From TrEMBL:
<keyword id="KW-0067">ATP-binding</keyword>
<dbReference type="InterPro" id="IPR000719">
    <property type="entry name" value="Prot_kinase_dom"/>
</dbReference>
<feature type="compositionally biased region" description="Low complexity">
    <location>
        <begin position="316"/>
        <end position="332"/>
    </location>
</feature>
<feature type="domain" description="Protein kinase">
    <location>
        <begin position="1"/>
        <end position="285"/>
    </location>
</feature>
<keyword id="KW-0808">Transferase</keyword>
<keyword id="KW-0547">Nucleotide-binding</keyword>
<feature type="region of interest" description="Disordered">
    <location>
        <begin position="316"/>
        <end position="343"/>
    </location>
</feature>
<dbReference type="InterPro" id="IPR011009">
    <property type="entry name" value="Kinase-like_dom_sf"/>
</dbReference>
<protein>
    <recommendedName>
        <fullName>non-specific serine/threonine protein kinase</fullName>
        <ecNumber>2.7.11.1</ecNumber>
    </recommendedName>
</protein>
<keyword id="KW-0418">Kinase</keyword>
Length: 392
């Protein structure tokens, strides 16, 4: 993490307090990204202060205000276009302090896939439904990028601790959190700087270096998470000479033949032999009952319901076992306990949004305190020299 930013530091005049760092990703000494768990203090009428959790992404890049805003604008457009999507975290604020740039997101409440893996409470059906939901999220992410005229860029945030199971009024739902902002903005692709250290990309393919890559890298990471959840072993630790990974059934005989085949294809050592499109993996995992495009068309109805006053009043209630059905049976995609597969679709043209456009944001200021300090020190030294000369 940066020297300026530390735990318990207050930002925005005390509106946000950093609790602890969650993930760190660095491409060089100048480009880095740190995700923080933070508390937001909001004043509520006469009820005093209320503290709520937030996710804050700290981005450090040696780019001045207008240049940085231009570089991050594609990513900002994507995040704003996904506002209201039930399977993505929501951007709430952005500002600059301490030579860093901060992006504030709502913190989803629930149990991460990693937590459920540690408890050994996942069955193959749970993992399959989780994969279907994440594929829909990635499809929405790529769809919005295409609408913005961008090439497909990897999400960069597919790990067991970034996929969260929550329970909403629509039933259990999987949310993808903490995208890699520098990666998704393509800043690193244009600079060509290789990734040097991270706790974010351990599930991505071996050839992935924190730059380049598209949705296919995310699909590999998703199946690597599924492999780990079903076998209890990270696939990277099982990689043999030539890059091959042992069959999942060799480590867990309870894995079905269909799932074993999906994992073998998706984690193939040769990229051209893997799944090349989200729809291909979606159908291989049993999403053939309704295609990914059909699921895409269903989003308008559910997104409108999620924005209704009744839904907002009820909020999200998280159960202790978000992956289990109350009756003890594992629900299928078609049962009422689980929502129908969802992907994002833009609202109708007549729908108006109060969210600002990325170009309406003021340029992020260029904060170079060290340059200012050097100027002050130089000025003081000149004044002292002049005083000594005059004193003689």
């Amino acid at each position: 993490m940066s020297l300026q930013t530390r735990e318990h530091m207050r930002l925005q005049d005390g509106q946000y307090t950093l609790v602890r760092p969650l993930e760190r990703s660095a491409w060089s000494d100048s480009f880095s990204e740190v995700w923080w768990l933070a508390r937001s203090t909001l004043r509520q009428n006469e009820q005093g202060l209320a503290s709520t959790e937030r996710l804050i992404a700290e981005v450090r890049a040696p780019l001045t205000g207008a240049t940085l805003t231009k570089q991050l604008q594609p990513m900002l457009r994507t995040l704003l276009a996904l506002q209201g999507h039930p399977q993505h975290v929501q951007l709430q604020d952005m500002f600059s302090e301490h030579a860093s740039h901060y992006f504030v997101f709502a913190s989803p409440h629930g149990q991460t896939l990693g937590t459920l893996m540690q408890r050994n409470s996942l069955l193959e059906e749970d993992v399959r439904l989780c994969c279907l939901a994440v594929i829909e999220s990635l499809h929405a992410f790529a769809h919005v990028q295409a609408q913005q005229g961008m090439a497909s860029i990897a999400h960069g945030g597919i790990t067991p601790h970034h996929v969260i199971a929550t329970r909403s009024v629509f039933g259990p739902r999987w949310i993808v959190s903490q995208p890699s902002l520098l990666l998704a903005s393509s800043v690193m692709n244009m600079r060509g700087e290789a990734h040097v250290s991270s706790s974010v990309f351990p599930y991505y393919p071996p050839e992935f270096q924190g730059q380049g890559g598209d949705t296919r890298a995310d699909l590999y990471a998703l199946l690597a998470c599924a492999y780990h959840a079903l076998t209890g072993t990270h696939p990277g630790r099982q990689r043999q000479d030539g890059g091959a990974i042992p069959q999942a059934q060799w480590l867990n005989a309870n894995i079905s033949t269909q799932m074993n085949a999906v994992l073998a294809k998706g984690l193939h050592p040769h990229p051209e032999e893997r799944f090349q499109h989200p729809a291909e993996l979606y159908q291989a995992l049993g999403g053939e009952q309704r295609s990914l495009e059909e699921a895409h068309n269903s989003q308008r109805r559910v997104l409108a319901a999620a924005q209704s006053p009744a839904y907002q009043r009820q909020g999200v209630a998280v159960g202790a076992g978000a992956s289990s059905a109350p009756s003890g049976k594992r629900p299928s995609v078609q049962t009422a306990g689980w929502p129908t597969p969802l992907t994002f679709e833009p609202a109708e043209p007549e729908t108006k949004t109060l969210l600002p456009h990325p170009e309406d944001f003021p340029p992020l200021p260029a904060l170079h305190e060290w340059r200012t300090a050097l100027c002050w020190l130089g000025g003081i030294a000149v004044c002292e020299t002049a005083l000594l000369v005059l004193a003689r």
